Amino acid sequence: MRIGIDATSLDPETRYTGVGVYTLKLLQHLPELEPSNVYIAYGSAGTDRPPELPVAVDWRPLPSVPLGKLSAAFTQLFQMPGIVARDALDVLHCPTVQARISRSPIPRRVTCPMVVTLHDLIPVSFYGSGRYTYPWRLRTVFRWNLRALKHTQRVITVSETSRRDILSRLNLSPTKVVTIYNGVDRPDRHTTPDPPDEGDYILFVGSTEARKNLAGLLSAYSQARDAGLSYRLVAVVESDPDKLAGLEARSAELELDGSVSFLHSVPDSDLGRLYEGASIFAFPSLAEGFGFPAAQALTYGLPVVASDIEVTREVLGDAALYTAPAEPSALADALVELARDDQVRGRLKEAGLRRVTKYTWNECCKHTLDVYRQASSGS
Predict the structure, then answer these.
(1) Rounded CA gap, 110 and 131, in Å?
(2) Domain housing 325
(3) Which of 33, 50, 227, 290 is disulfide-compatible with 158, CB 3.0–4.6 A?
(4) Which residues pair with 42 in a beta bridge?
(5) Whose CA is closest to 202, among 172, 236, 252, 155?
(6) pLDDT digits over 172-204, tens only?
(7) At 227, which CATH number?
(8) Same domain for 330 and 370
(9) Are both 106 and 149 inside the same structural domain?
(10) Residues 207 and 236 occupy one common structural domain
(11) pLDDT tens, 29-59?
């Protein structure tokens, strides 16, 4: 098969996002499993070939179009059909459904079967109404992109929770939507630098968007410190100056100065060091498609405190201590319990190391190849 993959998420600014990791792992593992296929990665215009790509992957930046934020949309909608025909693709895989017009939308009218990974419906299911909202432009672009799923042969999603949500909200055949769990791995120990000399600390890895509930974690951490918790809090978030300033202001308001660190633009090796050195992983998210950071924490033997929502129960199983998602006091109690109870930490560590063996990139890519075969054959 000749397989094309939209690799625009490997831009420097999105390389370390969940979609960036997902795309890179596909491109690294698919050629190992099926080397007879041709793999073509379509990067953004002018983007250099990522050094992590295997030599078996053909890197082809898309044409440059001087239309500002509309450049990616123009390329995908009007130039991609010709590119697909020129490259004689058997399958085109779009690894995400975007909510921004400046990012690559799902192409229409291509001449080969398409596979799309829809990680979740959070922009409309969680942010659609009520207290938590997305800017209307993002919701509009996301819904417009969702309409393109009618042109696809298969839709991959990353949990049964997400699959049920997709089937309940979108007019798609159940046979068209397939659950394939993400893989989860970690740097080899011999290549991972020594953990930082931070003392005991709680680690958070995620974004600052509302569903990640970092504000709730700060409130819970403040309460836990009042109850005698001496651990520091280290939060790895995106490098947005305005959002970082808001977090620092909230931390100061809670009188947490000196006990909370906000880090950003952390490469894989340094992120591995932070996981290695942490004592507890906090995952207070209110909505997820899979929950990659928490699953990643399991590979390091970290005890996890997680929000008690359907998808975390599905992915983490018995490897987490669950708390009410919107109650900082419950999260504070769980943090204090984990810090003081060696037996609970040990139980969660053992359960986590067992649980994470379920999520490998080889398994993810084997099932993805099956989906490609089904799509290309029209079955």
Answers:
(1) 39
(2) 189-358
(3) 290
(4) 6, 60
(5) 236
(6) 999 999 999 999 987 554 444 555 555 799 999
(7) 3.40.50.2000
(8) no
(9) yes
(10) yes
(11) 999 999 999 999 999 998 999 999 999 999 9
Q: Which pTM value belongs to this model?
A: 0.91
**Cα distance from N-terminal residue to C-terminal residue, the chain:** 15
If one counts the domains in the chain, the total is 2
Q: Which residues, at least 6 apart from 187, have a Cβ–Cβ distance to it below 8 Å?
A: 268, 269, 272
**172 shares its domain with 41:** yes
Query: Three-state secondary structure along the chain?
Result: CEEEEECHHHCCCCCCCHHHHHHHHHHHHHHHHCCCCEEEEEECCCCCCCCCCCCCEEEEECCCCCCHHHHHHHHHHHHHHHHHHHCCCCEEEECCCCCCCCCCCCCCCCCCCEEEECCCCHHHHCCCCCCCCCCHHHHHHHHHHHHHHHHCCEEEECCHHHHHHHHHHCCCCHHHEEECCCCCCCCCHHHCCCCCCCCCEEEEECCCCHHHCHHHHHHHHHHHHHCCCCCEEEEECCCCHHHHHHHHHHHHHCCCCCCEEEECCCCHHHHHHHHHHCCEEEECCCCCCCCHHHHHHHHCCCCEEEECCHHHHHHHCCCEEEECCCCHHHHHHHHHHHHHCHHHHHHHHHHHHHHHHHCCHHHHHHHHHHHHHHHHHCC
Same domain, 144 and 176: yes
Residues 97 and 223 in one domain: no
Shared domain check, 101 and 200: no
Q: What is the pLDDT along the chain (379 residues), one digit of tens a residue?
A: 999 999 999 988 788 778 888 999 999 999 999 999 999 999 999 899 999 999 999 999 999 999 888 998 999 999 999 999 999 999 999 999 998 888 889 999 899 999 999 999 999 998 876 677 778 888 899 999 999 999 899 999 999 999 999 999 999 999 999 999 999 987 554 444 555 555 799 999 988 888 999 999 999 999 999 999 999 999 998 877 777 788 888 888 999 878 999 988 777 778 888 999 999 999 999 999 999 999 999 999 999 999 999 999 999 999 999 999 889 999 999 999 999 999 999 999 999 999 999 999 999 999 999 999 999 998 7
